[in-house]
Amino acid sequence: MRADMNSSPNRILAVYGASGHTGRFVVDEALRRGFAVRAVGRDAARLPPHVPGAAAGIDDPQALARAFAGCGVVINCAGPFLDTAAPVARAAIAAGAGYIDVTAEQASALATLEAFDAPARAAGVAVIPAAGFYGGLADLLASALPGASAADELVVAVALDHWWPTEGTRRTGERNQVPRVVRRAGALVPMAQPAGRSTWTFGPPHGARPMIELPFSEIVTMSRHLAVPDIRALLDASALDEIRDASTPAPAATDSRGRSSQRFEMVVEARLGAARRTARARGRDIYAVSAPLVLEAAARMLAPGFDRRGALAPGEAFDARDFLRALEDDLEVEIESAPIPLGVVVA
Length: 347
What we know:
The protein is an alpha/beta fold. Helix content is 31%, strand content 24%.
């Protein structure tokens, strides 16, 4: 069951970057869940016309303050987050609002966790970066695994049957030249070069896939609160080839919700000696699925009784199993590879 918002004192959500690909999914999901939405972006002409809007650039703190006034949570969907996260988070905290973003950028997630923990605690709000597909979903899956924090190693493996990149993804790739990091012996260190290659066997329709080591913000979110010495991440190599091809088209809507036909599977494997435990999630469209992830987070942040404060990873802020259970309409989740019905997380 999704978090109950009926008794929340403030249901207004500001969505920064509301005119972007992911931002539109977030606005639509927020409306479907009954939130009042304020669409915010740099260009007023591009904001969705069916919700109240406000124009505010990241270089205009006064405009951001006006846009976020009276909101309970600000959801930032505008990349590159190396540029947008700090000014948007700062303005959200100043307005007394919680902050969520969907960054896959390691450096941005790490900077947000480090810079805004104390200000968020002082303001009595929560700041949660990297709450979308990259960063948030892997962290929740790992946090739902029994005994994951006692593992020797966590490995995240992602299969994509296609990766049709958005304009924002391409722009972020050009902007984000910060070397990628992994967790080794309890510390974040640069990823070894050349990137390691391997094969991973997923469920249908993916099967055995060639993989390349390519960590995203899940390394940062998991390292934030899981005392696991080694954490690394693997991506479907064919999907990486596709996104690197300048001729690969942007995602095209193929259903009434605007989702593409892309299918994904994410596996988090916890290793302790020879023992293995796995959690996996399957679904459709990595951009679209970020919307229910961040809206479930926002609903829980605004629900009565939520008392977490400061900068937090998703698996640190919420009960991971309960959170994943609430997303059964959007994700098929299995924990420990148990033969359980799709869409159900068992205790």
